[in-house]
Structure formats: structure tokens, C-alpha cells
Write a structure and sequence with these properties.
single chain; five-stranded antiparallel beta sheet
Length: about 210
């Protein structure tokens, strides 16, 4: 899209953009630099915001929910009910990726003690300075949309995408993250750090809505 046209188009949507947080509300901690680097690598590799940047609030548009939620690692088949995002430890350790034609384990047994406790924190919020105007959907704007369109067939910004927090290997050179595309399905992404950049090496569709 022409940069000048896109700037004007975004400014025209300003009234529909993220409302300010209620006074006195404590915001979640901003995602760390490495967490944001992993999330941005997935966004760029899969062009996750392409439709939203082109079509704004059209039905095909999917902004990102501004909060990323903990990814629970469980050691058995029982759902924890404590988190929106979950992965079984055995499944996590079963993932492989290709290195020079060889299939290698993504996480090793040595990573188990590192990944399990990582989900025990609260939600994080995306660093808004890394996104274009209106690319993010906050909890406040989500509630507002639901109130305005109760009982209607309009989906608009409610058809959003949301990341889990990434899980890092013990040496912090590998990351696993999930993405919910509401109304579509959930996907897991595996990334490896090469130098100062994260590179997506595999993805797995977990389920389809």
C-alpha cells in the first residue's frame, strides 16, 4: 500500500482505535525484548497482519490482541483449566526440526526444568511502539466492540489473533509459541535464534475451528 495513502487511511480510523485504559487500572508488564523478537519473527514470516493493514475493519481483518497469555506446560493428560494456552510436556519434547537434512529434537530433556516454570507469570502486553496504529486490539476495545454489536452478525475486530508467551530452551536459543486465530484455529511455531535474529523453522496446526 502507498505509504501516504496508508497514513491517511489509518488516521481516518483513529476514532475506532484502541481506547485508553480506565484510570487507575494497572497494565500488565510489557513483553521482554526476546519475547517481542520471537513474536515479530512469527508475524513477519507468516504475514499475520497483512489482511488487517490492507482491509482495516473488514471481515477478513485480524488485528492482534494486545495481551499475550501464559502458556501452561502440563505433565499429564489432565487439562489444568488455569490457562488459555496449554501444551503437554511429552508433546513439547516430541517436536523435531530439520538441520542439514537431519531431524533433531527441538527441546531436549535438559530443557524440561527450564520450560515448565515459565508459564507461572501473569499476562504480558505487546510493545505498542512496534506496531502500526490500530493493529492492536486491547481488552478495553474488545469489550467496547462486544457491547456495540451484541446480537449482530458483525465480527470486525472481534476476529482477532492472540499469541501465547513463548517458551525458551535452557540456553535461550530456541522458542516455542502458540497463536490463536479466533474463528480459524490454533498453530504452534518453533523458532531458533541465529545470531541476533529469530528464524522460524517449523509450524504445526494444533486444531481448526
Amino acid at each position: 500500500m502507498n505509504p501516504v495513502f496508508r497514513t491517511g487511511w489509518l488516521l481516518g480510523l483513529a476514532v475506532a482505535c484502541t481506547p485508553a485504559s480506565p484510570p487507575g487500572q494497572t497494565l500488565p508488564q510489557v513483553a521482554s525484548r526476546e519475547e517481542m523478537a520471537v513474536i515479530q519473527a512469527v508475524i513477519q514470516t507468516n504475514e499475520l497482519l497483512a489482511d488487517h493493514q490492507l482491509f482495516g475493519q473488514a471481515l477478513s481483518a485480524r488485528p492482534l490482541f494486545s495481551q499475550v497469555l501464559p502458556l501452561a506446560v502440563r505433565s499429564n493428560n489432565q487439562a489444568t483449566r488455569a490457562a488459555e494456552f496449554e501444551v503437554r510436556l511429552a508433546d513439547l519434547l516430541r517436536h523435531t526440526y530439520s538441520v542439514q537434512g537431519q531431524r533433531l529434537r527441538f527441546f531436549t530433556s535438559a530443557d524440561s526444568s527450564a520450560v515448565v516454570p515459565q508459564w507461572n507469570g501473569g499476562p504480558r502486553r505487546l510493545d505498542s511502539t512496534q506496531f502500526a496504529l490500530c493493529d492492536l486490539l486491547t481488552p478495553a476495545s474488545y469489550r467496547l466492540e462486544r457491547q456495540q454489536h451484541v446480537g449482530s452478525h458483525y465480527r470486525g475486530p472481534l476476529a482477532y489473533q492472540q499469541f501465547s508467551q513463548p517458551l525458551f530452551s535452557a540456553d535461550e536459543t530456541k522458542a516455542y509459541i502458540q497463536l490463536d486465530a479466533f474463528g480459524s484455529g490454533r498453530t504452534a511455531y518453533l523458532l531458533v535464534k541465529k545470531g541476533s535474529h529469530w528464524e522460524q523453522v517449523a509450524s504445526h496446526l494444533l486444531w481448526v475451528e
